[in-house]
Write a structure and sequence with these properties.
Length: 301
């Protein structure tokens, strides 16, 4: 029961990140140390699990996909999305107080990088090469120019597959990828109006991308553990470009809500109350995660 509650809280944290453009749930899962287990649970869903269900072996199928873990995580994610879109509307705060919100998330990511780098121990020269590769990929992705893709079924499937891959990959936001592919408004409007001719291809693409990409990431982490972790850390560094609190941001209105489509980091001209608050929240986020990492290491020891 205690483990389920902690997993639910982790899912809640992932859901919080999914609400914020530029931050992915995969980033939080990686930071919280459940990323390998999440990939293992997702990649275990396949013909073997379906076969167990068809044979009536429900309990074994549930255990095979780590069902308790996925259920608790899913409940936490859904709860966070509902809470931070209805009770405390983070999307609205991102428009009214973007510096403060992004300042907190910037600090959380930087603090997480400090913890992750410390856990990986002494870095070799080749490690910095893998980190640089991740940084380059992250910067390229967050600075992509929006594409004008058609709204046909094949492209909707492709968009779903790419977006879900980005969502589970630390450092990249799935909603941001949909905006880049020029599919966000179309898909969101289709979901709101229950247009299954769009929803079904999109869900199919998400399932295919999730099952295939999770297997690839799990294989990479198992076969090339350190280089993969270095590239992921580089992706996190690259994502800081989009999360830096002082930016010139461009929003589009989708279903009466503002969504971030592009941003350009700047240095503040003057340090007013909003800027100082953002910097203070940045420090709070960094200190919180570093202290949490030390606490976890102390408990493990």
């Amino acid at each position: 029961m205690k483990a389920a509650i902690f997993t639910l809280l982790r899912g809640f944290a992932m859901g919080c990140a999914d609400v914020v453009p530029g931050v992915s749930g995969g980033t939080v899962a990686y930071i919280l140390g459940i990323y390998p287990r999440l990939l293992a649970a997702i990649s275990s869903v396949g013909p073997g699990s379906v076969g167990l269900l068809l044979l009536g072996q429900w309990r074994q199928a549930w255990q095979n996909v780590d069902g308790g873990f996925l259920l608790s995580l899913g409940v936490g994610i859904v709860g966070a999305v509902l809470f931070f879109t209805r009770v405390i509307p983070i999307p609205l705060l991102l428009t009214s107080h973007p510096q403060q919100v992004y300042g907190l998330f910037f600090g959380l990511i930087v603090g997480s990088l400090v913890v992750l780098v410390r856990e990986l121990g002494r870095h070799r020269v080749i490690d910095f090469g893998w980190v640089a590769l991740g940084v380059g990929l992250g910067l390229a992705l967050v600075n992509l120019v929006p594409l004008n893709m058609p709204h046909t079924a094949p492209y909707i499937v492709l968009s779903g597959a790419v977006a879900i891959c980005a969502m589970i990959l630390p450092g990249i936001s799935g909603s941001f990828i949909l905006l880049i592919l020029h599919q966000y408004a179309f898909v969101m409007n289709a979901i709101g109006s229950l247009r299954f001719s769009v929803i079904l291809p999109f869900v199919a693409g998400c399932l295919v991308g999730l099952l295939l990409f999770s297997r690839l990431l799990r294989w990479l982490l198992k076969r090339f553990s350190r280089p993969t972790q270095m590239v992921i850390n580089g992706l996190l560094v690259g994502s800081l470009w989009a999360v830096w609190p002082f930016q010139v941001r461009e929003f589009v209105t989708v279903r009466e809500k503002s969504r971030l489509i592009s941003s350009q980091p700047i240095w503040p001209d003057n340090f007013d109350t909003a800027s100082l608050t953002a910097l203070a929240l940045m420090v709070v986020g960094m200190v919180f995660v570093i202290a949490l990492g030390r606490f976890a290491r102390h408990k493990a020891g």
